[in-house]
Amino acid sequence: MLEHGLHVRPALRRPQARLLTIVDNFSRVSPAIAVGRNFKSTEVVQVLEQAKAVYGVPERIRVDNGPEFVAKELDLWAYANGVVLDFSRPGKPTDNAFIEAFNARVRAECLNQHWFLDLQDARDKVEAWRVEYNQVRPHSSIGNRTPAEVFRSSPKGRAA
Predict the structure, then answer these.
(1) What is the DSSP letter of 140?
(2) What whole-number distance in Å separates Cα of residue 25 and Cα of residue 5?
(3) pLDDT in tens, 37-51
(4) Nearest Cα to 126, choosing from 45, 47, 40?
(5) What ranges do the domains of the chain cover?
(6) CATH superfamily of the domain spanning 6-159
(7) Residue closest to 82 by CA, chosen among 140, 17, 2
């Protein structure tokens, strides 16, 4: 995976909500975690556009083969932005081990710790967790710095 590639994957499938998680494999920063009932490719593109406005365009995005990722809208967005879509092999979660570990962390540290009254409550609590994950907690895998610090010190972070 190239520096500043993103992993994007649905993290949670429950009757009430799904999460779309995005994490940079270099800095460990999570540009966005979207909460919704389900995600169409147009909604994935909207989330990526919001992340792009703050974090810039990645070189590569690793995705699974879900319908929201194989649709033409995401392909067109990737082409227009010069982004390579890197699809994992069907049935091979080890291809996405990085995002799977991140999703497990989201589940253990956020989703399993809260009751969610509705989608907006879930969005608020998940966003608060994402901000803490990015800006407050140091990570041993990146030299005991926060993901935000690592991102800001990278060429992409300095340009943003």
Answers:
(1) G
(2) 6
(3) 888 999 999 999 999
(4) 47
(5) 6-159
(6) Ribonuclease H-like superfamily/Ribonuclease H (3.30.420.10)
(7) 2
Q: Is 91 exposed, middle or buried (0-12, 13-18, 19+ CB in 10 A)?
A: exposed
* Ramachandran assignment for 136, one of left (phi > 0), alpha (psi -120 to 50 degrees), beta (any other): alpha
Contacts of 59 (CB under 8 A, 6+ apart): 2, 3, 4, 5, 83, 84
Q: From the CB of residue 150, how many other CB atoms can be counted at a distance below 10 Å?
A: 21
- For the stretch 61-120, pLDDT in tens is 998 888 888 999 999 999 999 999 998 888 777 777 888 889 899 999 998 898 888 889
For residues 47 and 39, give the distance between their C-alpha atoms in angstroms, rounded to a whole number.
10
| Other beta carbons less than 10 A from residue 128's beta carbon | 12
Residue linked to tokens 């365009």: 57
**Token representation of residue 97:** 């081990």
pTM, two decimals, is 0.85
